[in-house]
Amino acid sequence: MKQRVFLFCASLLWSLLGTAAPHDTLRVAVNGLPASLGNPFKGNGRPGTLVWTAIFDGLTRLDESGRLVPSLAESWRLTEPTRWEFRLRPGVRFANGRPFDAPAAAQVLQWLASKPGRATIIGNELRGISEVRAIAPLILQIRTTQPDPILPKRMVGAFMVEPDLWAKLGPDGFALQPIGTGPYRLTSWDAKARRAYAEINPYRWREAHITKLVFLELPEGAVRTQALLSGDVDLALIEIEALERLRDRAFPIVAAPSMSVMSLALISERGNLPGTRLPLQDVRVRRALNHAIDHETIARVLLQGYGRPASQPAPAIAFGHDPTLAPYPYDPVRARALLAEAGYPDGFHITADVQINAFPADSLIYQSMAHYLRQVGVDVTLRLITFPQYLRNLQRNEFTGDAFGTAWNSAPYNDVTRPMEMFSCNRPKPFFCDRALSQHLRDASSIIDEPQRLAAMHRLAREYHDAAPAIFLVEQVDLYAHRPGLTNVKLHNRVPVYDLIQPGDPP
């Protein structure tokens, strides 16, 4: 009854506020607008990329299958172990008409290598860059302190902002009126209505079929579904609970592996006084928590077969995944024995900070996880936090709880190196630090030969599995639905490719 009342109210709200979309407008319901608005360096994934990919490009990108392909760079090559050259696409302009060339790209990457740039998420992920030079109008040279075989993959997340405007306005000013080379140009943010508006870029370098985009922030999955059913939006990020209802009404579903392993990170680094002993610092405890979870049932029931039980940092789609490594078996007896061996026969209490509406069924998965842990004596308090809180706490290691929900996110590189780096001593303020494991990661990350690097990543997958820095839950999935009539709706790197979408018949 409560759900019917809620959906009726949501429908009434949207019938009052929504308007029919013209044929040339795509209305996209997202779970959140970027906290940093049009500054793409303060995040590296959704919800930011739901907007940023419409207005910015990287030098490289991932295609529908997760393979690295050209974007603003037509080609790249390793000329020395620590030197890459990128040949840029000719004739590209920013949305204000300024040419995009090697000097412009160098300006962007040089800022990311500066002290304020390194303080951003993207700058930190590019911290291995030591020098950037334009050696010709369309040839960019990048040097790294150590061999970095995945540097072209890192360029996927380094969106090219218009550097002169960035320098003139500063990051905060640029965030309000961002300019990139993407197929669309942002025209306004409506902070009160939580909407963002974009129109087609007159200087775009690739074709687009829809003239205007409207992004509507609707944090609740049920509201996004109702807005889609009511015809108030055309495309929406959806929850798994909505699949049957949408299919029954002939709404096409678009699904793809998310390149992410959903997990509960177990904080073992606190800067505690010598002699302080915390349960999650003991590897036996961390392994016990993994044995306490029935990963197979969670994936099969809560994700309706779309996801898979997780065994390691890399999902099956990502480079570095070891297909021979099985998840921790569900064994509550073994879990209790390990807890007793570690000195906690009666269990203990933990507080876990989690976000919801970020992944399909994430709220149910966290609740199910907490239920399983309580069965072995570990009492869990789930505390909801927002995405901006999560980002801030992640960068500074300022979580006040004992654990936090996070993804081992191989996007946007589709390479396990990225999530492994996050769970390592290599971070400026690590929340998990195994020095031997981190050294093995540094060694593997400099291997140029791809088969050798893959073998090294498989060894690391086993080490991470055994170290259990997190409860590996499930390999997640991305789910979208759209109105009938839209065609060519494809997902690249977890977000729709707006310039590929064909409008079809208006609703």
Chart the SSEs and their pairings.
Layout: H1 2-17, E1 25-30, H2 48-55, E2 60-62, E3 68-70, E4 73-80, E5 83-88, H3 102-112, H4 115-118, H5 121-125, E6 129-136, E7 139-144, H6 151-154, H7 163-176, E8 184-190, E9 195-200, E10 212-217, H8 221-229, E11 235-237, H9 243-248, E12 253-266, H10 283-291, H11 295-302, E13 308-309, H12 332-341, E14 348-354, H13 362-375, E15 378-384, H14 387-396, E16 403-409, H15 417-422, H16 435-445, H17 450-467, E17 470-482, E18 491-492, E19 495-496
Parallel strand pairs: 1-10, 1-11, 14-15, 14-16
Antiparallel strand pairs: 2-3, 4-5, 5-7, 6-7, 8-9, 9-10, 11-17, 12-16, 12-17, 13-17, 18-19
Characterise the protein shown here.
The protein is an alpha+beta fold and 507 residues long. It is built from 17 helices and 19 strands. It has helices spanning 2-17, 48-55, 102-112, 115-118, 121-125, 151-154, 163-176, 221-229, 243-248, 283-291, 295-302, 332-341, 362-375, 387-396, 417-422, 435-445, 450-467; strands spanning 25-30, 60-62, 68-70, 73-80, 83-88, 129-136, 139-144, 184-190, 195-200, 212-217, 235-237, 253-266, 308-309, 348-354, 378-384, 403-409, 470-482, 491-492, 495-496. Strands 1, 8, 9, 10, 11, 12, 13, 14, 15, 16 and 17 form an 11-stranded mixed beta sheet that branches. Strands 4-5-7-6 form a 4-stranded antiparallel beta sheet, covered by helices on one side. The chain has a two-stranded antiparallel ribbon with strand order 2-3. The chain is globular and about 65 Å long. The chain starts with a helix and ends in an 11-residue tail after the last strand. The relative contact order is 0.16.
